[in-house]
Amino acid sequence: MNDTSLNPAGDARREVDRWLGNYSEDHRNPTNITIHWICVPTILWTVIALLWVVPVPAMLGRAGLWAGAAMVLAFAFYLRLSRPLAFAMLAVFVVFGLVTELLYRALGASQLLWLAVAVFVVAWIGQFIGHKIEGRKPSFLTDLAYLLIGPAWIAAKLMRRMGFSY
């Protein structure tokens, strides 16, 4: 059965609603939700920073190329789900990319790497503590795509709070 048979209007939002709804099912405890509001964006930034410091052959470009490529691929994933949500995530990527570039210039690749690793580990510990409190396993253990849905879930919540639909 395809999505059209479930939703005669063929509404493209059906898939994004399903992803975000399923993610919400694993995130109901207020403490876990608060932890996710802090740790999910933090983890997203660390992934961007970690990819930023992966060496780039000079003939291909400069530092940040791999992070930029990953952000383009993630944007394409989000665009397939929801145009407004994709552009919200694009704004996040731009801000996180600019922050990472500033940190790269200030700290250098080695120190940025160690900072990102340390923050990554602490943020994931926070995530697992949140899920222990929640009493449910993290969503990404059932489908790795939820690693992309987590940031979109927060962006969608922010969009709704500001009066925008996703």
Structure write-up:
This protein has 166 residues and is mainly alpha-helical. It has one domain. Helices cover 75% and strands 0% of the residues. It has six helices and no strands. The chain has helices spanning 3-6, 13-25, 30-52, 65-81, 83-134, 146-161. The model is unreliable at 1-9 (pLDDT under 50).
Structure at a glance:
The protein is mainly alpha-helical. It has one domain (32-155). The chain is built from 6 helices and no strands.
Summarize the SSE layout with pairings.
Blueprint: H1 3-6, H2 13-25, H3 30-52, H4 65-81, H5 83-134, H6 146-161
Helix pairs in contact: 2-6, 3-4, 3-5, 4-5, 5-6
Q: Please tell me what the overall shape is.
A: globular
Q: Residue ranges: pLDDT <50 for 5 or more in a row?
A: 1-9
The ordered H/E elements are HHHHHH
What helical percentage do the residues reach? over 70%
Structural class: mainly alpha
Count of DSSP H/I helices = 6
Cα-to-Cα separation, first versus last residue: 25 Å
Beta-strand residue percentage: under 5%
Q: Indicate the mean pLDDT.
A: 93
CA radius of gyration: 17 Å
Biggest beta-sheet profile:
none
What features would you highlight for this structure?
6 helices, 166 residues, mainly alpha
